Structure formats: C-alpha cells, structure tokens
Amino acid sequence: MTHLDLVKTLHEPNETKIVLVVADGLGGLPLQPGGRTELETANTPHLDQAAREGVCGLSIPVLPGIAPGSGPGHLALFGYDPLEYQIGRGILEALGIGFAIGPNDIAVRGNFCTVDAQGRIIDRRAGRPSTERCVELVNKLRQIRIPGVEIFVEPVREHRFVLVLRGEGLGDEVNDTDPQQEGVPPLRAVGRPGSERTAELVNQFVERAATLLRSEAPTNMITLRGFSRHPKIPTMQEIYGLKPVALAVYPMYKGLARLVGMDVVDGLKSLDDQLAALEQHWGQYDFFFLHYKYTDSTGEDGNFEAKVKAIENLDQAVPRIRALKPDVLIVTGDHSTPSKLRSHSWHPVPTLLVADTCRPDAVSAFGESACLHGGLGLFPAKYLMLLALAHARRLAKFGA
Amino acid sequence: MTHLDLVKTLHEPNETKIVLVVADGLGGLPLQPGGRTELETANTPHLDQAAREGVCGLSIPVLPGIAPGSGPGHLALFGYDPLEYQIGRGILEALGIGFAIGPNDIAVRGNFCTVDAQGRIIDRRAGRPSTERCVELVNKLRQIRIPGVEIFVEPVREHRFVLVLRGEGLGDEVNDTDPQQEGVPPLRAVGRPGSERTAELVNQFVERAATLLRSEAPTNMITLRGFSRHPKIPTMQEIYGLKPVALAVYPMYKGLARLVGMDVVDGLKSLDDQLAALEQHWGQYDFFFLHYKYTDSTGEDGNFEAKVKAIENLDQAVPRIRALKPDVLIVTGDHSTPSKLRSHSWHPVPTLLVADTCRPDAVSAFGESACLHGGLGLFPAKYLMLLALAHARRLAKFGA
Known about the structure:
Alpha-Beta Plaits; 19% strand; alpha/beta; five-stranded antiparallel sheet; Alkaline Phosphatase, subunit A
C-alpha cells in the first residue's frame, strides 16, 4: 500500500484551507566555505516569524543525491512518488509552452539540426538559431499533412520545437530519432508493439520535413526525442478530496498543476497578480498552489544577489497571504538551485509549515542550517501533502 | 523503479575521483552512561577538520535495529539494497578465505562435529579443534573424488571449512544438513527442482567424509550450511559508470569488492601499503574503496583502548589521502562494533563526506553525537553512493 492508497481512505472534508507556496529552486549554498546561503543572507522577517510559529525541516525531492527537474520536483510536492509517476520529455515540453495536451496525443520534443550532403548530423543544435527563425521554420513544417492523424508543430525557442500527433490508436513506444552524437544520420523511428503505425507516421513527417528544410541550412533537418503521452495520474481531488487551484505565471507550472487535476487561473503576470488571485478565489477553493519562479531563474543565472533579492520579494508577500488566515501555510521549493552551481541541485530544500497544531521546534529563522534542526527533520517531499492534510485536520485516524 | 535503476540512467562521465574509506565497525558506544564512544575519545584532528569542511550524518546499514554482517554492510555502502542482494553463507565464507569462486560453483560452509555411536550429534563444533587440526582434516577430505563434479575443500579455522562443488548443472536449492541442534543425526541433503543431482552429490560426499573421519573423534563427522552460488549483482561500472578499485588487506573485503566488479590490488599488508597503492593507482581509477579492518577487530575483542588507537592510526592517514585532492572523500563504516558489546551492532554509523559542494552544517568534530546534527541526517547507507556521485558531479538532472 502506498501513502496515496492510504490517504485516499483517510481524507475527510472540512472547511480548512491550505496554501502551498513553492519558491522554485529555493535551497542554496554559500559562495564561500562557512558562509551563508542565499536564504540565510536574505532579510526575511515574515518567513522567520512563520518559522518561529510553525515547524521546519528539509525535504528531499526524489532521493538523496538526485537533482530533479521541475516535473519530478513538483510531483513530489503534490504528493506523488516521482519515481512512480514519470512525465515524458515531450509532454513536459508541451506543458512548458502551454499546449493543451489531450488524452489521445503523442508529444515529442524536436530539435532543428544540421546535416551534411550525406545526411550525417554535423550540428545537433543547428548553430542555435534565433527564436524568430525557429518560428519561421515551424511555420514551414506546419504545411505537412498526413492522412489519419492531426499534426501540431509548436515553436519552443532557438533550435527547439514540439511536435504533437493527435489521433486514435497512437502509441508512445517509439525510439528517439536523435542519435545523440554527430557524424551519423538521424535514426529511423521504430515502434514497439502498438506503436508501429505511430513510428510510420513519424517517419513520413520527418521525410516531408527534410524536403521542406533542404535549402534552409544550417537548419536543414530535425531530430525527435521523448515520445510520450499524458501520464495517468490520479487527481488531487480523488486522492485528497481537495478542490485545488494553481496560481502560476509560467506555463510549465500551470501544465504540471493541470496534470494533477488543479484548476488554473490564467493571465497572471506577477506575484502581485498571484496574490490578488489568491484573495479573489479564496472562497472557491481549499488548496492553493502559488508558484514563485524567480528564486530558480536567478539561481540558474548564478546571480547570488538577485536570488537574495527574489527571496526578499517573496518575504514581502507573506503578510498578505497570512492575512487570509490559511489553516495551513507551507513555504518550500521543488529543489535547490544554488547560484554557486548555476543549476538545479540535490541539496535538501528548506521547508516551513505553519498551523495551530505545530509542535514547537527551536528554529527561529528560515534557512538551511536552521531547518536542519527543525521538527520535520529531513523528509521525503512526497510526504509533505500528508502533513498538510493532517494539520488541516482532514485525515481520519488510520486503523481502530 | 529502484535507486539503482534510476542512477543507471543518470550517470555521466567526468574526471572526478571519489575515495570511500570504510573503517570497519566504526561506530561505538560509551563504556559508562554519559561517557564517550571510541570515536569521540580518539584524538582525530584530521577527521575533525574534514567534518568541519564537509557534511556529516549517521548511516543505517540495513534497517533500524538490524546489525549487519560484513556482506550486507558493505553491499549497502556500495549502493546495493542489502535486502535485495543477499550473499549466501557459503559464498561469503569462500570470499572470506580468498577462494576464487566461479560462476558454476556451489559453495557451502562446513563444520566438523562430533557424533555418537548412533550417529547423533553430541557437539556441533567438535570441541573447537585447533586450526592446524582443521587443516589436517581438510587434507583427508581432499581425497574424496566423485565423478562428474570437481570438489574443493578449504580450511577456514577451528571447526570451520568451505566445500565448493564445481560443474555444469549444479543448483544451490539444497537444505542445510546441519540440524542446528544436538541429539539428532545430521540431515540428508534434499534438492529442490534443479538441485536434485547436487543434493545427491553432497550426500555421496558426506558419506565418504563420514567414513574417512570415523576414527577421528571428536571431529568424526561434518555438517553443511548455506549452499549458495555467486549472486547476480550488476557491477559498479554498469550502475555508476565508475572504474573502481579496492585497496583491502583481508580476503573477505577483496571478495566483496570483486563481487560488485571492482579491480583489486593484491598483496597489501598494512594501511601504509594501502596508502601507497592509492597513490600509485590514482591515475588509473576514479573510485577507490579503502578498507580498514582494525576498528572492527578491536571492537570485537572488547578492547576499547585498542579501538581508540586504531581510530587514531586511521586519522593519521587522512592527510596523505587528502593530499591527492579527491573530489569526494567519504569516511564511514559498514556497521558499528562497540567494544562494550564485543560484536557488530545495529547502531547508526558516523559518516562524513567532504567535497566543495557541501552545504555547511554545525558539526565540528567527527563523532556519533556530533554527526546526529549533521546535514546528512540519519540516512540509509544504500543512498551514500548517490551522494558520492552527486558531489562528484557525475549525475545528470532527473526529469526535465
């Protein structure tokens, strides 16, 4: 029995409200040995106050040592075991551009690449064309029609696009056509049982694309990676009995939220918009996922100071959230993004939970070192939702 | 999906080097309530310095409360779930004496015992004969020839020896002939499907042995336990993409290292030899397993002071290891061996990891109580290799 099987049998309705604030890539590292992390450097009086009132800890998104992408990082926070529920690269790319993936769709990520006269790949990213050029080339590919399947080609940026095949009887058991090396031609798509026709359609698409792009060097060919379909994930309504809504600015996080059954408020452009939407929809939902991007993007830029500032901006939003008196407020991240590493990392993520049922711990400021001594300890992120529901008094006793 | 399935898809090559120092049985207990453990008593300036620079924690070799043998303890450190990968008693005994087990071999541990005139066991250990006597008796048993199978009999010590059957079509699904009680005769070997012939060969061997030993009372019979073959374990090369080497003095640890695909440097007699080999082979490998025995043997002797001294001797080796500038240095144990208990124990094992990607914790000395507050927390030993690879920057992000 998994923890989701269990919680499905235990949840019970009430009027409580839970707010989950995900500061993307929140955890960090000091730049110098013995120094402070971004979060420890930032002036965060409101988060520190919440840490004093609540209980803190450090979450492990997937497993010790594993740096997650946004997909597994968020699924874990929503309570799903990220090793059990994996999201294909094609689907994630489609979610990332806000493409509305349907149940019969097969999505795959495409790259424009450069091939020589013999058809061998000489640049897997086609010299990284501009995004404008990407849009032009995608418009060319949109001419392709293949009987029996509906085709969508969507630009992402630079050399990247998304291809979606929609139709009955398609399968995602198709190999990548990207050989992941140069000096060899792209691979032919081959379908495992149930996906043979899909592979055939893909090969037709690639041939037509090659013809259309022939004179477009260096963007004169395409490769495809990560054929995947909408994963079968039980919704948060089913598992938790919650009515959840996502307040996110970026398409990827809205897509991930839709994947687990959340409603999504569209048109939000800033944290202010998100807070206004939180206030506006407070009566309609009982679970609010608020995604804050800038702690991650500044970390990926390697900009320690900007990440500190992004954290301080988030801190300023805390009073407005707490003014709504959520029964449970959680502030955490989907993974760490230390500016020192300029990338997602495996380091555990500082997490705080405030409710009136918290047992006191000695944590008096929200930061990595302090959280190590918090009452939540080091814990798998996939269990955070159980704690949220428990403190929201939404879980019955297990067993008599 | 297990953590090994995952890591197999994520590892990527680079030039980093990882050193895993296993101080066997490192963890301890104070002799008096409120006192210090062996590690806390020892003067370990170099380990303390490493603890300050790195991150510390306590590893749980198998599960809370479970005291592991050397096999499961080391498998966990090498990243294998010790409940999934179990090494039969016969194989472990053969590894322990340095016998080169082949893929078609069935190994089993033998005991000399004493039987009365009716063939009933009256001493399961035959009065613990001397090891010299064990060698004489084994030489007698080596006369036994059985058509269709190659037989090896090897002394271990006192009443213990190893029997290895080599040939095509053998099976290890054979019951122990040791009834584990006195007053009854040894059991006949019975083979489950696929192992019937093996059981028949074993019964022939035992009958011949009984005849040869008839006049050798009290060592006038044998019992056999733990029929087993070389387990199928994926190698560290396959799982981690590492080129690993073992620097160990004792056969058991060399055998365990070979089992998971490590190269083994032979002929090492002391810690000095091991350090010299580490330096000599530094360019050829990227993972170095250095096994230090004396923390365990002194603990098993119940000699607190000697264990303290053994730890201090290891501490003196740390600068020579760090002079090589490993990207990741780990110092841990395969289990605890408190001198107070004179045996392996279940207590979590102090662990330190030094790399330039460690998040600071407050640990300023390497010891059990201090490690409890370290950034690694209390963690399953099987995840240590994930952390090693992460800090060696050898793992790609999981999911997009």
